[in-house]
Amino acid sequence: MNLQDRIALMSRLGSLLSEPDERLLAHVQRTAHHNPWFTEENQRAAMKALAEHMLQSEALGDWAASYDLAAEETDERKKKPQIIGLIFAGNIPLVGFHDWLAVFISGHRAMVKLSERDPWLFPHLLKRLEEWDERFAGQTQVVERLQGFDAVIATGSNNSARYFEQYFGKYPHIIRRNRNSVAVLTGGESREQLLELGKDVFSYFGLGCRNVSKLYLPRQSSRGQDYDFEPLLEALHEYKEVILHHPYKNNFDYNYALLMLNKEPFYATGSVILREDERLTSRIATLHYEFYESEEHLAKALSAQRENIQCVMSEVPVAGFSVLPFGKSQTPGLKNYPDGVDVMEFLRTLAADK
């Protein structure tokens, strides 16, 4: 398959994800039954985001062109396709798709180790691709154990990353650890902006590394008044339906009871608990916040956490960081690489024939 064939195939996949048919929806339902965190609504949201932001023909063509993939493909000295081992995380639906897409578009082959939390949806998509174009057969293997690969892209927790480093360290690799996303507020946000922030907090129950787990709030407004939590709490309360999800509610109730027993101060909306805490990582159904005294104080606090931050959400510039507007954390584009590591460039520069 040449580059244009691969792009056309991905565009067709985008059409399927935009309007899932009965066969695909059957696997969505099966996955939701297997993993209650992967609700049908969340799986549809993940598929819609991929279709709209990663699987559009023009966007794929521009992405490939920015790395000059077409020229490399016609070069007589072009490199032999490598086998790239991929270890998918299982925190949100289809979370490893972007890595796989980069492997496929770049002309390499993938060997995928799926998460046990999401074992059916991705294999079904592979089957559909093979049905549409028989040349796709053999482009991607789904395996229980990675072996016989040339390079690795692995995503996991800090603990699993240490294991990955030991096991895959001698191969070309990208190994990702825990990261969290944060939001910087000024106190002057509109209700609409705070409602958009709610998407960054609650989408996928807050389980993604791009979900906001911590807020940076001004100690005082420009008028010298203490930060007013009421507008923020009212906006977050609009997502109250999340509490109807039993696993989420169990976490909410547990954390609420724990804070009450420990007599720790907190705010609660009925759907999320806000507590002052310097840590980036927050428990399910909780959201940490930290006050900043000045822009200099904020810049210092964020810089100290730079290696642990995935995205910074804000409606104003933040010194030293690229920011995304509220509501856009879970709709990354093709060049929004996790941890800021350019996966396509990594794949382009892999060694030639061994």
Overall description:
With 354 residues, this protein is of the alpha/beta class. It has two domains: 191 residues, 3-Layer(aba) Sandwich (Aldehyde Dehydrogenase, Chain A, domain 1); 134 residues, 3-Layer(aba) Sandwich (Aldehyde Dehydrogenase, Chain A, domain 2). It has 13 helices and eleven strands. Strands 8-9-10-7-6-11 form a six-stranded mixed β-sheet, sandwiched between helices. Strands 3-2-1-4-5 form a five-stranded parallel β-sheet, with helices on both faces. α1 runs antiparallel to α3, α1 runs antiparallel to α4 and α9 crosses α10. The radius of gyration is 22 Å and the shape is globular. The mean pLDDT is 95.
Which short descriptors sum up this protein?
13 helices, Aldehyde Dehydrogenase, Chain A, domain 2, Aldehyde Dehydrogenase, Chain A, domain 1, five-stranded parallel beta sheet, 2 domains, single chain, 354 residues, 11 strands, alpha/beta, six-stranded mixed beta sheet
**N to C succession of SSEs:** HHHHHEHEHEEHEEHEHHEEEHEH
The quaternary state of the protein chains shown equals single chain
- What's the CATH H-level superfamily name of the largest domain? Aldehyde Dehydrogenase, Chain A, domain 1
* Largest sheet strand order: 8-9-10-7-6-11
* Whole-number total of structural domains: 2
CATH architecture of the largest domain: 3-Layer(aba) Sandwich
How large a portion of the residues is in β-strands, by DSSP E? 5-15%
Please count the beta strands (DSSP E, at least 2 residues each): 11
Shape: globular
The first-to-last residue Cα distance is 23 Å
DSSP summary: helix tally: 13
